[in-house]
Amino acid sequence: MFFSKFNARVDQLERLVKEIDSNMEINYKDAAQSAFRELTEQFQKLQKEGKLNERQEIRYSDIIPSLANTARNRYNEFVAKRCKSTGNLLHQGKEGRL
């Protein structure tokens, strides 16, 4: 019983990671941001409650900033392509935020 609850918590975090990846692939920035906030909040909650083992804490401590960087890079590429295709120079050089 304990093991199934333990896996359910990790499964929830993994589901959110996959949701973020999927949303970023299809350029659903708002949905990715929402899932990212949920992942961060859920991770912090589980970490605070001591419900993650050390390996899981390390894994998600690495994954969360990595996802944020990937999202920023994808958004910046998207903006740069869009500006280039429309000739709009206003947004070039601005960084996206997740």
- Uncertain ranges: none
Task: Classify the secondary structure makeup into a structural class.
Answer: mainly alpha
Mean pLDDT, to the nearest integer, reads 81
Rg is: 16 Å
Most strands sheet:
none
The SSE string, one letter per element, is HHH
Strand content: under 5%
Any idea what the shape is? elongated
**Percent range of helical residues:** over 70%
The number of distinct β-strands equals 0
- Distance between the amino and carboxyl termini: 37 Å
Topology:
Elements: H1 2-25, H2 29-48, H3 54-86
Helix pairs in contact: 1-2, 1-3, 2-3
Can you put this structure into words, describing what you see?
The chain is mainly alpha-helical. It has helices at residues 2-25, 29-48, 54-86. The protein is elongated and about 50 Å long. The model has no long low-confidence stretch (mean pLDDT 81).
Short description:
This protein has 98 residues and is mainly alpha-helical. 79% of the residues lie in helices and 0% in strands.
Overview features:
98 residues, mainly alpha, 3 helices, 79% helix, elongated
